[in-house]
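Forum: Protein Structure Q&A
Topic: Joint prediction for protein chains with partners

I've read a bunch of threads here and the consensus seems to be that you should model interacting components together rather than docking separate models afterwards. I'd like to see that in practice. Below is the full input, 750 residues plus whatever partners are listed. Could one of the regulars post the assembled result?
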Amino acid sequence: MKKFLSLILIFSILTMIILPGCGMKDSTQNAEQEGSNGNKGPTELTLWTFVGLHGNLYEDAVNRWNKTHPDRPIKLKVTTYPYQEMHDKLAMALQTGVGAPDIADVEIGRFPQYLEGTPQLADLTDLVESDRDKFIQSRLEIYSKEGKLYGMPTHGGAVMAFYNKEILDEAGVDPSKIVTWDDFVEAGKLVKAKTGKPMVAIGRTAFWDFSTMIGQQGSDVFNENDTVILDNDRNVRALQFLHDMIYKYQIAVIPPGGQPDTEEAYGWINEGNVASVIMPFWFMGRFVSYMPDLKGKILVAPVPVWKDGNIYPTVGLGGTGTVVPLQGKHVDLAKEFLYFAKGTPEANIEIWNVLGFDPPRWDVWEQLANDPGDNEYTQYFVNGKDIFKILLSSTEGNVFSLRSNKWVPTANSLLATQVLYEVLETNEATPEQALKKAADELRREIETGE
Amino acid sequence: MKRKSFFASLLYSPKVAPYLFVLPFVVTFLLFFLYPVVSAFIMSFQKIQPGQVEFVGLTNYKRLLNPHFYTAIWNNTRYTFWTLLILIPIPIILAVFLNSEKLIGRNFFRAALFMPILTSVVVAGIVFRLIFADPPISPANVLLATFGLPPKRWLADVNVAMFLLVLLATWRWTGVNIVYFLSGLQNIPKELYEAAEIDGAGPISKFLYITLPLLKPVIIYVLTISIYGGYAMFTETYVFWGTNSPKDAGLTIVTYLYREAFQKGDFGFGAAIGIVLAAIVLIINTIQLKYFGLFKKGEV
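Posted by a regular:
Agreed with the consensus. Here's the joint model:
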């Protein structure tokens, strides 16, 4: 009897362990059979993302799709994974040829990795062929390889200045008078003198300010031949300026958490500890979601420019390119849906309404400048209704994006852990020394790595 | 009837049955251990990209001769050194105390020292990261404030990095080692201690000449796994700094592997790192075991 019972126990445990694995396989097979039968039922598309908020955009899009395409309904299954996990899973799936979703969001920092060798992603060039010039060109270039587009951009990522109007008023500073970086420093000195607060929070572990300042001068980490130019004069100038803001004029600090886009920094900024941040457009979502006490106090303004040598009004930073893996079962449908969700003018209006991002199609900026609608973003910012007027007038769609290639992650790592650390955090190296050291190391790595 | 007895005789036969019992382990071993190891070894000589696999000989190994990798090895060596120094003597002493019946609240202390093991390293790491966070209200900075010191950006300080890692490791792993030593202690017959007392041995002599020598097998075991654990350390540093620690202060061999293989997609290079790590640990463990094998009476 005992033997019999223990056999039953072992058998049931084994079944419990093995069955769930079998079960899942069955359900996906069923869904595929349904889809391929055409009108029998909706086609199920799986989508991976690393920002829950992005999922909202796609869900909104699939509802609109089903209304306008009743003959080809789609059932969208969105899964949000943590940043690292999602990118690693996708990399594995593309490498092994198994397990990739139909559509996936890929962050710009990790994008080059997926373009290596033969990209296992669908060519999206035909999607944007008809109105290519309506998109911010640099946003298409960063997700392309050899002229073929592999990722649909999500936003322009245009860097703006976000001023805490309360602090500026206390110091008697008029933000509309801040046009150049020199004006910015003068304002900063006033703010420091009258309120004791720093003018700006500078990122060290993520360097939005540094990237903006080099991009405005038309400089970069790599030039168009993918040669390392990290230690050129314009970059040294930008880093020296950041260094001086912290140590010479003493109007800047590194925020808690190392850069403004961290939980520690949100709390610190929310408490009114700094007069401004220089961050990409999408940082507005962080204000709305994480810094409620600053509602009605934050002013959106164009980012200051260099008095001489300034080529671009601002830079587009961050970014998510959405890809369609080739191994999916419904590549054509996925491509069409992707364009519907992110490429059309209507879709771009939704990118603003749902996500609060500056759409990658700048032909809708004019429409939004005249009528930005009434959403939580227009309500939060002091000049919420004028945001697109400012964006349009200050840039006219001319937003520069730093080059994206497979060595960028290495360069970023060196910048965050060495260059910016030694120059901004511990002040133990001059910008020239630090940039040269990092540039030489990059050159060495590229030489041995190829 | 005949079939049943044939099958039964097959299953129960002395020749076949042992292999059947070992089969699950062997299959698991081959599938999940031997195959990946051989595969990784082959991969380390290749350049692997989606859709393209190219044989590149020793290129990956040559690329390992760079400052980042040396820093990683040095970090692991220092980390292993500290964890050995702290996580072997202290748990032994604590285990001896916990073993004595005279200790008041013995069960409470046993539970308290053991509980950290039950936490996930990731969760523990996140909590430690919050304890040592930048804002002045973080527990570590509050502690500094009581001594009149200004708040410190802990995770940005290169010199504090090793301290934080060893602190987390100590909190987390002391309990495990105590359990090992406790079980070792309980295998020492009481008569030996009584005999020693009759001969006039004090507590320290008893410890040095009875406890330690008889604990030697356990100590060697803990030493071996600690050396492996020290060189393979990843999670603790990952929860503090991810893969980007200031000036590579928290860079370990496995962190370097993770960064190169998964974040940059260079799987061939990652495989090479893994093979080198295995070689390092193998060599050190072999030396260490040989060393202890030669000595009859061993002191740590």
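The CA atoms of residues 296 and 382 of chain A lie 5 Å apart.
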